[in-house]
Records
---
Amino acid sequence: MRITLAGEREFAACAERLRAAGREFQQDLARGLRKPTKMAVEQIREAILHADMAGFRKPGTQPFTAHIPSKGVKRPIARAVQGEVKVHPDPRALIVIRLSQVPPRVRPLLAYFTGRRKRLRHPVMGNRHVWVGQRVPDVWHIPNVESYRRAVREVLDAVAQKAGGR
């Protein structure tokens, strides 16, 4: 899964100019982009951990009130969200879910967390005669995308200004 922001071409063009300018500016760009990318990853992780996954019942039926301990779905997915910044050979700031870090029993739910599938239905306590729906909110987005864009733009401007003053 990839998040593409408006201005990706500008970022690539700036990185290409920085590549020509020298390694020092590449390192400045990468160093500057790591902070906003890390903040975006933390925001996505928080959104996953605090997502409401409550089930909903069919009208006219009795509510299910027994406590069922968590099976640990949100925490492994949140841990698998990672960011990386690279300027060589292809410039990019990626936020990804590493499938290798998600337990196999949780992997089928990733399509719901990333918004590729909408309606999660499953049998109640393994009873294939009674099925229920459950919410899994789409949390695969940067909650405050405008501040992320602004931070990336500031980094690009600062590094470009430093390169121009050289």
---
Amino acid sequence: MITLPSILSTQDESVRGHVDSRSLLARTCDRDLASSCLQLAPISSLEVCPPNLNARKTTHADSKATSISNLTAPIPPDPPGLRLRLDFKSDRPLNPLAVYVNAIHLMHELAKYPWDDVLHKSWVTCEEGYGLVISLHTSLFLQTRYIVSALYKSVLAMAEERPGFFRLSSRLNFFDEGIGSMEFKKVGKPLHEMFTFGSNNNTTNITSTVLRDPVIDPEDEKFIINWDDTDASIPVQSILFAAFDALATVAQYPQDSSCGGIHGISATANAVLFLGPYHDQSIPCGRIRRALLLIVMHIVIGKKIFRVMDFDLRFDGTQIGQGYLMKMPPLVGGSNGTGALARS
């Protein structure tokens, strides 16, 4: 992977037509959001704390129920003056798996940087073998949070089929002035197996027999993820977006800070992925970030496991974290993802 850090910002009302729990910043904890390098007015902070930091420690048995109410935090206002215009090329389809793999890796990298850090103005990311590149070029220096926001809203628009997975140029504007773009486009031919998601994102492609061996972090062999699954299937695209959403959430917090738990919810609100501490153990946000990537690449994609799962996170032999991937009930008229979670 080639990742050259950069920055950007955006948010446009046309990109916000999704369920309430889907907003990238819907779970932002009270923090000092000073004005950006563009001298924008400060974004209002919130009094509601998400399930990320300083949350009540829960056992694995009660975490599904007790942490649900934390997903109802209000959505903060968009950064003033910044807009994102999505320009799709509907005659140039992109493979959804390639988009998710690249976007998840990029979000994983962005989460390493402090939320208010000012980054470089250009970067390119291209995961080897997937035949897709995401690139960003801006004329202004912007903060990490704006790159995260633009990436999130671009992928969300594809996931919600507005219009879908096609070549995309996300145009960044500060009021009426263009300041850059984020591009999603094909490059060469994919080398990996590019399984399709099927119509209506319902592909499950379940493997009947699989070795459930622990996942060992290649960057730190002391960090291990044990996992198990059930027969209940979940659409693969829902799993991938839930992981992407969780990474966007954990990106908001210092990676060495203690994490109380992170939820990621699919764009269609039919799946939730949760990772958090085990009992009174402390787990850094950076470990959650690593675990999300490892679960996606080694279990979901590597073993084609598209099912309900439980996770056990261990460091140097001691269990420090736990989590689950679960299916959510169908949405009822007038409800949203949070309501479905509460009913579960």
---
Amino acid sequence: MRPPSDWLETLPKDRLMAEMSLWSADLARLGAEIARIDPFTDIYHIDVADGHFSPALLFFPDLVAVCRRCSAKPLHIHLMAADAILEAQIRQFADAGVDAISIHAENGNLEAGLDLIDRLGLVPGIVLQLQTPIAAAASFIERIGLLTLLGTRIGAKGQTLDPQAESRLGEARALIANRSAAGRILLCADGGIREHTVPNLARAGAQTVVMGSLAFEATDLVQRMAWLHAQPVER
């Protein structure tokens, strides 16, 4: 199962979108979890970490291939991999059937990685850690489809949102608005996504939020998603 080739352009533009983080799913019941969450998902967010670039070690190509068989929604890989294995990891996850791969601005071979993602026919994206200036994405803004800003440190769940997250979203939104290319770029907020943080992140410019426990542990998922979709968004 795959989304249509123009999936990025056809995603909703009139509401806040849900990028469901499969790190928060019950991995022992992954197929059932995807079936449960799929009607409410705009994009699946899959964190991949090598234990070096990020202290975590999670998600593998074979597991991602299972996700691909379970859903036709876009699969977005957030790749946290050291420079030495970055391009090999891009190829492995492309083979697993993903639709977008975002790599870190902190990678020394960022440009080569973006080139490879593009050649493989996937949507390229950039992720910025908290300490990385938004300007680090400026040289590549014409060639990406996703720009993800982390609001917490990488590799650990349950952290509180950093105070600078909202202002960084506003700066990134201005960078996207001033580009010359016509293609769509999604501005994604990742980390610290809670009931009390989502409204301000949406107002600051986030078009998607990476939902972990906020979705997977919701007592009433229908109500939670109706709340998310009702958030005012910047246009």
